[in-house]
Structures are given as C-alpha cells and as structure tokens.
Write a sequence for this structure.
DNA sequence: GCAGGAATTTGAATCGTTTCAAAAGCAGAG
DNA sequence: CTCTGCTTTTGAAACGATTCAAATTCCTGC
C-alpha cells in the first residue's frame, strides 16, 4: 500500500505539503500541487482512513442502529441513509438491535471505539438513549433519532407525521360509513405507535364516535401480532366493520385472520395499514395504507448528520415528514344492510 | 475517552503489560492481570479500534457489497452475515452497488483505506473482481463471493444450488402434466440466472420435451422484467401453460401480467418462482417457489471469512447450499381439456 | 545463598496521518 | 543591498494502540 511518505518523496516535497494538498488546508503553489497530485494518481494513493481518523479523532463512518434489516420497512431507510452518506464520502456501519436493550447498548458502546462521525438510530426505547449517546455528543459526533423517539429526546430527529397519517386513514374509514371501528396498535412504548393511536382517536372524536377499550388492541409490529389480535377483535359484539392496523405487517396478519374467520375483506371487514410496503400491492385484496417514505427518513437523517459534522451547532432539528393515503381495495363502504339484519 | 496510558498508570504497570492483558498475548501474573482488568472496568475502557487497526494493519470490519438492500432477497443475507460477524466482534460496512460497474469499483477502492479484515461480495460481474480484489488478498484479507460468482472466480464462495432448485421446480410442473413450459430467466451474465436456466433445461430434457427459443425470455430480476416478458410469453402459440420464473420478483410481475391478460393463475397458467420470499405467502394465489436461505448464505460467508482471518489458508471453499420446493397455490395441473378445445 | 533458566514486565519503535510552530522563500519598499 | 511582511514549505510532535528485544523478577536445584 502506498503511503504519504512515498508520495512526498516522489513529488520531492515534505509530508506536510502532501497533506495540505490532499486537504486544501494551506496555500500550495500550483506547480507543487500538480506534482503531488500527479504522484497520487501515478500510484493510486488513498489516505489511510485509520491513521487519519486516529489523528483527527473522528472518522468518516456513520453508525446506523436499526431494529432488524429483515423487517421490510427498514431497508429503504438504510438505503436512503447510505446514498447520502456515500455520496459525501461517508460509509455506514450497520447494526441490528432486535429492539433488545442489551444489543442496542452493546452496539452503542462498541461503535464508539471506531470514532464514527455520527450515529443514526431507530431507538428501542428500552435504554436511556440520551445518556448513552452523551459520550458521542461530547466527542462532537452527531446523533439523529428516526422513525420513533426515545422518551425525553431533545436531539435531532426525523419522523413521519404518524398522528396525521393515522387520522387520515381513520377519517377515510369513517367517511366510508363505518361506525364500529377498531385499531391494532404497535407496542405502546414506541412513540410511532402511540402517535398513530392518537390520530385514530382524534378522528373518532371528530366524528363523535365512542369506542370501548376492547376495540383497541396492542400488538407487536408483525404478522403474528396482527393475526392474534384480529382474532380477538372479530369475536367482539358488535363486530368491528373496519380495522386500522398500525402497520402493514399487522394488516397482513389481520387479513389472514379475517379470511380464516370465514369473513371477507373488504365486504365484511375493511382494513387499512400503515407504511405502504410493496407487498401491499400484491395481497388479495390489495392493501390500502398510509404511505410514508422510509428512504426519505434515512436520507434526511443523513443530511442532518452531515450538516452537524460540517459544524452546524444550531438548535435541535425535528423534521416531520408528511404522509399520504394510498387507496387500494382493502377498505370499502360499511356493510349497512347486513349489519342491521344480523345484529 | 480513556486510553491505555491511563489504564497503565491506574494499574501501575507499563503500556506493554496492559496490551498483553487485553490480548492474552503473554503470560501475565494473575494479580497483575486483575489489577489491569479492574482498571479497565473502572473507567469503561475500550481499545481504540483505529489505533489498533493502524498498528495491526487490519481492523475488525468486514466490507459487504451487495446490489441493493432494498431488493427483498438481500436483507436476510446481510442479517446472516451481521449476526455472525457481530457475535465474533466484527462489524459490517454496508455498500450498495446497484449492479453498477463504477459503484462496485468505487466501493472496492475506498473500502481498502479502512483496512477491513475481509470482504463479502455479491458481484455484479461487470468488473474483473479477481483483479480488483487482489490487493485485498495480498494484504491478507479474505474475500468471499456469494449468491452468484464472477467469471473465473477461484476464491471462496457460497451459493445456493440454483441448478438443482430450478430442476425441482420444473420437474414439478412437468409432473403436473404441463408440456408447454416457458421460463423467464434473470440477466444471463449472472451465474445464478444461467444455473437456473440449466436446471430448467435439464428437467425438460429428462422429460423429452422440446422448446422453441422464444419460450425462454431473459429479464431483469424485478417485477417490471417479469411483467413485460410474461406479456410476450402469453402471446405465443401454443401459449405456455406453465412458467418458471427465475425469482419471486419476476413471478410477481408475471402474476400481474397474467391477470391483466384476462387469464387466471393457476387455472390457465401455472407459475413457480425462486427465493421463497415472505411476500409470496400473501399474494393471490400464493406463490409456489424454490426456497433458499438468504440468511444461511450470509452467515456461511461470514463463517468462512472468519476462518480465513483466523489463519486458515487451505484451498478455496465452494459451499453450495441446498434448496427445497415450497408448494403453495400458483401451480396446478395442466388444463388438458381446454387446451385441446382451443388449440 | 547463589547460579541459571524460565517467566514476567518494560520501553521504545512503529503504523500513517494531521497540525502547528518555525524556517525558508519571495516581493516590494527604502 | 537590506529590511519587512507575506506566502510557502518543512519538520516534529502528536493520535493510541501493538510488538519485540531487552531488562527484570521469580523459581528451582544445588
């Protein structure tokens, strides 16, 4: 591997000058600059990032801690972050926390030893992230939380407008004539889950609809969660004619449970999900869902991080991305007539 | 940030001794060892990975270059690799190449500056990877290719048994009575695509079935590719009654095209995919597919890499993982009667 | 109690960069 | 020709570990 010393010798200059050329850090006369650049090109020299990082006390790496890349919502988030990072000369170190306190902590602690320029975290909210990331902030590294926020988080953040998205979805169901609604929320210690529940409730209040607490079921953000909680909802009397699922994986499980209960979606039960994953297009019926851009989430977080790295010390940024309703075939008009006959 | 010097002072020993304790690299008397460990615990010291990497000329990072994390097959691969890497103290740097020559090259070149212990690559096959990774191998870093292999690749590799998987799928279709088959292959410069085509052809030969070249369509590995090529296949006379799609994304596009042509799957056209992605369970009809474990692919690659890092200099390993056929509802018996009437 | 060999421990060099104070070069004014 | 104030360039000291030869300590047997 070629190093700076070789470049310096080839260009007949000192180490310092080579460094200045490489970093534009001091006035170097054009002919000298050219000699150095020429030598760099000739041997295909690239600065050793470890040496540079060691000296600068900061590398061009960004730690990204997410729950699980295998969960279909997260790849787009990672991709968004990687695109922005890479095109600015930064690389992503990917860490899966599985929403486990101990793994999140382990990643947080071990990443520090690489002196990353920053961190993008989808927090599990089982650890006090503010305290845990303090050592990063003190070292001048940025920390951006996305998708959901730890309790009391006062740093930079990027989230979707979960409340508004849920509100739109629920209002849409109400406009279709549904009056007996239900929702399957995500784990309520996660802010995106509680925000979506708030949106759901606001829409209900707006339509002066009341709802027993048994119509709100908390589930994990996956197919199993959706399946088991839907089974419960479908046994309620009166049976809900519309379900707002807090994400598409839950909705998928709900679809399964509805079918298994001998009911049809959307004729008997309407369903709306959240996230608008690709797989929602190909289910039967195709899934109406609240769209949010995972890519934008990741990309925006990386943008903020880069601005912090470049020295922006302004107040914490809280970016909230918009949502939109994607209407497909899983929600239809309420089955007025049948209901009046059967109940 | 605490450093070794502080630990040395606290434990009243020299730098060298601290290092020896941390690396078990020399006999250190138990009481001394304890003193050092105690100091380490007291201040939460963690060795600076940059300094360590600089000195050792190798870090505990593994570069992973994949086409696109957003493609539903790859997250499991990455997860498998990350799990094995992380539990052995290694971290993954994730790079998306988009199958672009230039991006793959850029990642290859720039990663080198971080002195990774190894590379896991899903190659685009647009660059001469053997030459491009030579600098890594000369530096003692391992390079493992997975999923598909560059032409003339003689290094370590892990792939699924693509030929066999395709053979199983095709033979299954033949056993269902289909005689007019078609296939949509992936890009034929990728070995997994050609291998799957070989398996398809072998099954045909085994059943003494002949096929015009127009029944073999090459597509990109995505929904659009599947959609457009299926449209072509459905216009052929005689129309194929069964299609083997080289992956599930292609199959998804095929499903769309079949429906759009006013035909039914599986009554009019049977369909089998490859990869057995989760989304195949929820399509209508659910998708029969050849299962391969992306997780295993990634995990095995990481295992091999770690063994190389630990010093295994044996001959190149070529691991081939098994496949199995997951039967759902997208393939059915050939429509014998209708065919004889209509054609 | 001591020599000799083995087991520990130490100290200095090194990895490849950045950075900063100091040195050198240069141009213009007197 | 010298002095002054710039602009360039240099050299050495970090950064925080590892490693190897050398120094020290510890045992064991006599």
């Amino acid at each position: 591997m070629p190093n700076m010393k070789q470049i310096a010798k080839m260009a007949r200059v000192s180490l310092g000058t080579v460094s200045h050329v490489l970093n534009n850090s001091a006035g170097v006369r054009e002919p000298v600059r050219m000699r150095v650049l020429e030598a760099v090109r000739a041997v295909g020299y690239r600065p050793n990032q470890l040496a540079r990082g060691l000296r600068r006390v900061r590398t061009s790496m960004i730690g990204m801690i997410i729950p699980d890349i295998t969960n279909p919502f997260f790849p787009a988030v990672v991709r968004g972050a990687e695109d922005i990072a890479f095109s600015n000369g930064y690389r992503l170190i990917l860490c899966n926390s599985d929403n486990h306190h101990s793994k999140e902590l382990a990643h947080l602690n071990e990443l520090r030893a690489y002196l990353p320029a920053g961190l993008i975290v989808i927090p599990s909210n089982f650890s006090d992230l503010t305290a845990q990331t303090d050592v990063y902030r003190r070292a001048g590294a940025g920390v951006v939380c996305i998708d959901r926020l730890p309790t009391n988080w006062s740093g930079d953040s990027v989230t979707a407008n979960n409340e508004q998205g849920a509100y739109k979805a629920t209002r849409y169901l109400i406009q279709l004539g549904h009056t007996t609604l239900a929702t399957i929320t995500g784990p309520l210690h996660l802010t995106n889950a509680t925000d979506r529940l708030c949106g759901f409730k606001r829409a209900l209040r707006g339509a002066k609809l009341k709802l027993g607490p048994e119509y709100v079921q908390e589930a994990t953000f996956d197919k199993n969660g959706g399946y088991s909680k839907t089974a419960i909802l479908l046994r309620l009397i009166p049976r809900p004619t519309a379900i707002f699922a807090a994400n598409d994986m839950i909705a998928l499980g709900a679809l399964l449970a509805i079918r298994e209960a001998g009911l049809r979606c959307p004729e008997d039960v309407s369903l709306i999900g959240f996230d608008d994953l690709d797989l929602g297009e190909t289910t039967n019926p195709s899934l109406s869902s609240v769209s949010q851009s995972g890519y934008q989430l990741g990309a925006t977080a990386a943008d903020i991080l880069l601005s912090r790295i470049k020295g922006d010390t302004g107040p914490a940024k809280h970016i909230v991305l918009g949502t939109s309703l994607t209407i497909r075939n899983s929600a239809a008009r309420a089955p007025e007539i049948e209901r009046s006959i059967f109940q």
